[in-house]
Write a structure and sequence with these properties.
The complex is a heterodimer of chains A (about 110) and B (about 120). Chain A has about 110 residues and is mostly beta strands. Helix content of chain A is about 0%, strand content about 60%. In chain A, strands 2, 4, 5, 9, 10 and 11 form a six-stranded mixed sheet that branches. In chain A, strands 1-3-8-7-6 form a five-stranded antiparallel sheet, with no helix packed on it. Chain B is globular. Classes of the chains: A mainly beta (about 110), B mainly beta (about 120). At the A-B interface, strand 4, strand 5 and strand 10 of A face strand 9 and strand 10 of B.
Chain lengths: ~110, ~120
């Protein structure tokens, strides 16, 4: 049973527009959420995170929103740039378990 | 050198071969991990080492054998693999303890493994 779900395998947006990547989770013990970005032939790199005590965290063009009641988080990228084209993984951890549980990833393509 | 380095980047092996993947972290972290990434699947945690002690084996077949001689080095020994084991194998490290903000994973670039 997948505890972290990214239901959109791919997303395509125009340069300059907003990209919204979604993630749902089922484990109510999760209290820390992260987004990783992965380019082909490279390992994932940490992008942004959010603790369950917050509902929003912003870092430059990247904002993560957390809706605990819906067990949903989203990553907003504004404005999107072609260099943002990559696979984005949502991950979560919680309780006494520090291990991260990952989603399947969403391939974002930003078209010039 | 900084970060997490993995060698080799690419590996092709036959089902009867024995090979090893190597990972080294230069971040002073106390935990190291092996992950497997197959196409269209989530990243699958294989093994966790915390302070050189294996703390998790996620039901991984015995044809995968990890070794962690110290907190900076991690190996994955491979023998008699199957074609379905072809995947990207990622090593990661983190600093465990001190709260969740310390538990971000830092990944290497991975070894793309093909089993023929």
């Amino acid at each position: 049973d997948q505890q972290v779900k990214q239901n959109s395998p791919s997303l395509s947006v125009q340069e300059g527009r907003i990209s919204i990547l979604n993630c749902d989770y089922t484990n109510s013990m999760f209290d820390y959420f992260l987004w990783y970005k992965k380019y082909p032939a490279e390992g994932p790199t940490f992008l942004i995170s959010i603790s369950s005590i917050k509902d929003k965290n912003e870092d430059g063009r990247f904002t993560v929103f957390l809706n605990k009641s819906a067990k949903h988080l989203s990553l907003h990228i504004v404005p999107s740039q072609p260099g943002d084209s990559a696979v984005y993984f949502c991950a979560a951890s919680g309780g006494s378990n520090y291990k991260l549980t990952f989603g399947k990833g969403t391939l974002l393509t930003v078209n010039p | 050198e900084t970060g997490v380095t993995q060698t080799p980047r690419h590996l092709v092996m036959g089902m009867t071969n024995k090979k090893s993947l190597k990972c080294e972290q230069h971040l002073g972290h106390n935990a190291m991990y092996w992950y497997k990434q197959s196409a269209k699947k989530p990243l699958e945690l294989m093994f966790v080492y915390n302070f050189k002690e294996q703390t998790e084996n996620n039901s991984v077949p015995s044809r995968f054998s990890p070794e962690c001689p110290n907190s900076s080095h991690l190996f994955l020994h491979l023998h008699t693999l199957q074609p379905e084991d072809s995947a990207l194998y990622l090593c990661a490290s983190s600093q465990v303890g001190g709260g969740p903000t310390n538990e971000k994973l830092f990944f290497g670039s991975g070894t793309q493994l093909s089993v023929l």
